[in-house]
Amino acid sequence: MTSPPRVRLADGFLAAVTEHLAALPPERGGAILGFGGTAHLLVSDTFGEYSPASWLISEELSEAVGVLEALAKGTLMGTVHSHPRGIPDPSWADVMTTAKALKLNPHLDELLIAIVTEGTPREFDVALGDRHRMSVHVLRRRVGMSVARNRPVRAAVTVHPIAHHLGGAGLAPDFHVSVDEALEGRCTPAYPPMVRRADGRQVLVVPLPEDHRGLLFVDALHPVVSPLALRVDSHGGLLPQSSPWDPTQDAARQVQGLVRRLRLRPDPDQWSRVRSLVGSLADQRVLVAGAGSVGCRIAEDLVRCGVETLTILDPDTVSRPNLARSVYTSWDLDRPKVEVLAQRLRDINPAADIRACALALADADLEALLDGVDLVVMATDDMGEQAHLAHWAYARGVPQVACAMYRKGAAGEVVLVVPEADTPCWNCCVGADSRSGELRPDANYGLGGRLVGEAALGPAINLVSSVASQLAVGLLAGPRSLAGQGLGRLIAQRRTVGLVSTTPDWDFFPDAFGDLRHQHEPQSVWPTVEARDDCPICGPEREAPLSREQGAEFVRQLRELADAARSDDAEAGQGDA
Amino acid sequence: MVTGVVRQPSVLPAARMAGHTPDPSVSEAEQVMRLDPERLEKWEPVHTSVLNGWRFQLTPIPGGVTFKFLAFRNPSDGNQFRLWVISPDMDSETLYGHRNHMVSVTIGGQRIAVLCGPGGRAAPDLATARTDAAKWALYIARRIAGQRPGFSE
Q1: Peptide bond preceding A543: is omega within 30 degrees of 0, i.e. cis?
Q2: Do the domain assignments include residue A45?
Q3: Which end of chain A is more exposed for a tag (fewer CB within 10 A), N or C?
Q4: Are residues A326 and A445 in the same domain?
Q5: Which one-letter DSSP state was computed for residue B115?
């Protein structure tokens, strides 16, 4: 015995049949439109001629099917109509009419004949409400076989829970349209939903009703194949949103998550436990330089506290050692850190405007990056580049929070710089002539001076990063907020470098704490920092940071200097070594 | 009767003004004279239109390679000195090529390989810059001569 053919029906189509056919006395009928082999749309024949035992398909239904196909609402898959009680399968007339339809549609290989009757579902039947059932039959085109001998085959039905899952997310696309609506031009792009081709597959396009700034592409094989969430940008372009879709998990909950991500405004309740401490940080703009184990934590803290405009800058991709102590996962390996982190931050707050720049600082246009920025977080592994950024930020009056780990993660430093309050600049605190250089990991000469990837535990990094996050949030929230009120004293006393130990008896801490009892790590010391009198960044006679044009000119002049010297060497008889 | 001093009209020198690029100062010149009283290292000030500094040369092994350096002030490093190797050009060398033993700093968005002190430090004065340069030059010169440097190995 051969197994029956399988037919896929959307649950929304079944609901439409229940409401618009089964609820009325037989006979009633309509056309079935589908996408990707799944029947989803009932076109009820409001012009059909009906009797208790017959349905004469109207010309208007045929015309409406053409209109709907032209509007990309689906393609014809067959017909559905109700029968009097006790006749659950197609009649000879039903088969002959369908065979005729196949002849008229040479592009179709088969058509469905669905019969709705009152009664208990038999094997393969689908229940429609409490009192009705529907059997589905497939009439295939058979070359060389007479119409009279061609018999339809009963099909087993698979129901795809599209309406159920979308409804749980607050979306209610229509799975029914009447002939009048189709012919009177009452269809819109969203009513009924359109079908389009995406990546070689037909998908149902379901827009978010409230602002039309988001779409879901629902696959014909939903939920086995993930829906695709897309945001509509200001130019009408579609921005696909990545999805951690897992077909083994609750699909309805995952659809809700996708729709939440598409909605432009998060639920205000998201901030209910931080607003009293920080107020609203939605208007604050932050640049985070460095998306390593320190930068990714601080960026996440900022977004969780309500920052909605963030630019992340880092040239690196995620590698295996990153998994031990950052927010990245094995899914992210070899992808640019900034892209992965940006997506993670958007998952936390779908309304956040996160800009990912996979660039080194030296390759970035700092002037443009700092435009309108309220805070710079500096967490790079290249102190040369960081010095340049710090100079630019100070010259622009942009506050900075910097964070770096010391060797083995035994301690770390956080630096607070507020140009408006004339605090010492980053360079005076921990720059090129400070002891910090000896405490940080070695510069990696082979990588042009970036710090080597130092052994350190994630919890130790998180401890120091959290202190930096507190400073950053406090600065953004302002001195009148509960989060920011403690910073005023630090700034006034110029205690703008925090040394945070993550291990007991670190460096000079035993001397600093003496015999003070009950001490253990973590500990912190916030010494007073003296700015250098002749500092060109924060001193009385300040110098502007060098522009890219000046840098290029300097390199050109260095080359000239080298050429002249080598020419002299050649004359003196000393060539290249 | 009118008394007073007859004087010439005031004039300004036709010289360069550049408050943001500190010229080599008198104190630096005095320091140079102390560092190289015999003028063996040929210290001389260098002006570029962007940054200024001092050029000097060291010959760590008598009769061996002479290394020429530029110590320039970088404003983003608080005007500390950074050391750039003018000659010889060994960037193509893999064993003791410059880049393998240097860090980079960013000057106006341009990465420039420089010598540094411990922990990537810039040099606060010319004496420190000379010390950093001398150590590096001796290390490279010994390796070129096929000797073990005896330090930083």
Answers
A1: no
A2: yes
A3: N
A4: yes
A5: B
pLDDT above 70: residue A553: yes
Token reading at B17: 């003004």
Question: Considering only CB atoms, which chain B residues are within 8 Å of A439?
Answer: 119
Q: What is the mean pLDDT of chain B?
A: 78
3-class secondary structure per residue, A57-82: CCHHHHHHHHHHHHCCCCEEEEEEEE
Q: Are residues A466 and A560 in the same domain?
A: no
Give the domain range for residue A497. 279-525
Torsion of CA A56, A60, A65, A71, to 10 degrees: -170
Q: What pLDDT, on the 0 to 100 scale, is given for residue A148?
A: 62
Q: Which residues contact A78 (CB under 8 A, 6 or more apart)?
A: A31, A32, A39, A98, A111, A112, A113, A114
pLDDT in tens, A252-302: 999 998 888 887 666 778 889 999 999 999 999 999 999 999 999 999 999
**In residues, how long is chain A?**
577
Tokens (6 digits) for A427: 């360079």
Question: Do A496 and A574 have their domain in common?
Answer: no
- Nearest chain A Cα distance for residue B69, angstroms: 10
What confidence category does residue B10 fall into, taking pLDDT thresholds of 50, 70 and 90?
A: low
d(CA A136, CA A114): 4
Q: What percentage of residues in chain A have a pLDDT greater than 90? A: 72
d(CA A510, CA A74): 76
A571 touches chain B (CB under 8 A): no
A468 and A330 within one domain: yes
Q: What is the pLDDT of residue B18?
A: 41
Distance CA A407, CA A428 (A): 21
Q: What confidence tens digit (pLDDT) does each residue in A359-409 have? A: 999 889 999 999 999 999 999 988 888 999 999 999 999 999 999 999 899
B122/B76 Cα distance (integer angstroms): 11
For chain B, say whether A567 makes contact (Cβ under 8 Å).
Answer: no
Which positions 330-369 of A are in contact with B (Cβ < 8 Å)? Answer: 361-364, 366
- Whole-angstrom Cα distance, residue A454 to residue A461? 11
Reply yes or no on whether the pLDDT at B95 is more than 70. no
| CATH number, domain containing residue A93 | 3.40.140.10
Q: Of the residues A108, A132, A167, which one is the last residue of a structural domain?
A: A167
Does residue A434 sit in the same domain as residue A566?
Answer: no
Beta bridge mates, A128: A132
What mean pLDDT is reported for chain A? 91
What is the per-residue pLDDT across A503-544, written as a single tens digit (0 to 9) for each? Answer: 999 999 999 888 888 888 899 999 999 998 889 999 998 999
C-alpha distances in angstroms, A230 versus A81, A86, A308, B91? 37, 47, 20, 49
Q: Which residues of B touch A363 (CB under 8 A)?
A: 109
Cα distances (angstroms) measured from residue A509 to each of A295, A431, A505, A512: 26, 22, 6, 5
Indicate the residue of A388, A536, A554 with minimum beta-carbon distance to B50.
Answer: A554
Q: Are residues A385 and A466 in the same domain?
A: yes
- Looking at the structure, tell me whether residues A569 and A450 fall in a common domain: no
Residue A241: inside a domain:
no
Instruction: Count how many domains chain A has.
Output: 3
Of B75, B88, B111, the CB nearest to A546: B75
In a domain, A480, yes or no: yes
Indicate the DSSP class of residue A264.
S
Looking at the fold, whether A488 and A557 belong to one and the same domain comes out as no
Q: Is position A312 within any domain?
A: yes
pTM above 0.80, yes or no: no
What percent of chain A has pLDDT above 70?
95
Whether the link from the prior residue into A88 is cis, omega within 30° of 0, is: no
- Determine, for residues B106 and A385 on separate chains, whether the beta-carbon distance falls below 8 Å: yes
pLDDT at A152: 93
Instruction: Examine the fold and report which residue of A167, A198, A221 is the final residue of a domain before the chain moves on.
Output: A167
